[in-house]
Structure formats: C-alpha cells, structure tokens
C-alpha cells in the first residue's frame, strides 16, 4: 500500500505510477468512515492512475460513488507492505501522525508480518516521538540519507 502525498510529505505519485506497470498489486488509501461513523482508511486496488481524483485535503482518491465496488476493496489483512506518511518520526520507528487516527486504526488491523515502512525527510526526524499504547512502531524509517530499523513489533 502506497500513500498519495499531500502537504510537505515525501512525494509518492511518480513511484505509484511506475509501480502500476509492475506485477505488484498496488493499493492506495482514502479517508472514509465505518458503519459507526468512526474515521477509517478505505483501501482501493489501483489499476490506473486515471481512476483517482482530488478528494479530502486535495489528496488523490477514488471517486466517492465507486468506494463500495467489491472488486476494488482490499482488506488490511491482505497487505504485505504499507508505506506510511507522518509529520515526524524517530530512528526507532516512532511516528507522529496528523492527529485524526486514520493510520493508527489501519495499522492495528494489518498482519503481524506486514512490513511497515515510513518514508520521510531526515529533517522530519526527532530524537524521540512519544508513543501511546495504541500507536504502532514502524519496522523501517527510510530517509534520503539512510534506512533506520525500527523497533520490532510482536510476530516479526
């Protein structure tokens, strides 16, 4: 799963487009709510960049009227790799998000062997990110300079 960038995040669009030409199954998230009205990320099997349009926060996403198409929906347990955005990270894999909890909820539902990789700029690294009980450490933090191995999650 690749995020589609916004704000000052590492830009991912060109990589996502390039990956669409590979034999990999590409999944992108979109912001939605569950049956109880709780914020969550929907997961979309992307086959062509033309399927997307500007949505919440001007992030590319599938058109709202197509969100429930069964052939396009992906379950979090199917993900092998999640590329995770954030405001800041630390070298141990701690992550500070934007505060809405979208990724916190998603990451609670991936398999324990799903690789969680944060991509960020070295300038986004803090000495230590305070982590609460519901927060999930990244397995890798990838910057323009190096790759930092995060704290291992149970099951890895």
Description of the molecule:
- The chain is built from 2 helices and 10 strands; from the N terminus they run αβββββββαβββ.
- Helices cover 9% and strands 25% of the residues.
- A 4-stranded mixed β-sheet has the order 5-8-9-10, with no helix packed on it.
- A hairpin with a 4-residue loop joins strand 9 and strand 10.
- The chain is mainly beta and 156 residues long.
Protein topology:
Elements lengths: L12 H8 L5 E8 L5 E8 L6 E2 L5 E2 L19 E4 L3 E2 L5 E2 L5 H6 L7 E5 L20 E3 L4 E3 L7
Parallel strand pairs: 5-8, 8-9
Antiparallel strand pairs: 1-2, 3-4, 6-7, 9-10
Low-confidence stretches: none
Topology pattern, helix = H, strand = E: HEEEEEEEHEEE
Calculate the terminal CA-CA distance, rounded to whole Å.
Answer: 19 Å
> How many E strands?
10
Radius of gyration: 15 Å
What global shape is seen? globular
Number of helices: 2
The assigned structural class equals mainly beta
Q: What is the makeup of the main sheet? A: 4 strands, mixed
How much strand?
Answer: 25-35%
Q: Which oligomeric form is depicted?
A: single chain
Fraction in helix: under 10%
* Residue-averaged pLDDT: 92
For the biggest β-sheet, the strand order reads 5-8-9-10
């Amino acid at each position: 799963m690749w995020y589609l960038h916004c704000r000052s995040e590492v830009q991912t669009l060109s990589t996502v487009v390039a990956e669409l030409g590979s034999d990999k199954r590409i999944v992108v998230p979109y912001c939605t709510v569950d049956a109880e009205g709780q914020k969550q990320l929907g997961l979309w099997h992307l086959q062509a960049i033309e399927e997307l349009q500007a949505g919440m926060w001007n992030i590319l996403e599938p058109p709202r009227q197509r969100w429930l198409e069964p052939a396009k929906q992906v379950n979090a347990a199917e993900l092998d790799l999640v590329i995770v955005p954030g405001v800041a990270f630390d070298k141990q894999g701690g992550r500070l998000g934007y505060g809405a909890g979208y990724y916190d909820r998603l990451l609670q539902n991936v398999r324990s062997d799903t690789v969680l990789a944060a991509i960020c700029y070295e300038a986004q690294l803090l000495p230590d990110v305070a982590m609460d009980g519901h927060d999930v450490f990244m397995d890798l933090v990838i910057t323009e300079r190096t790759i930092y191995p995060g704290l291992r999650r149970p099951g890895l």
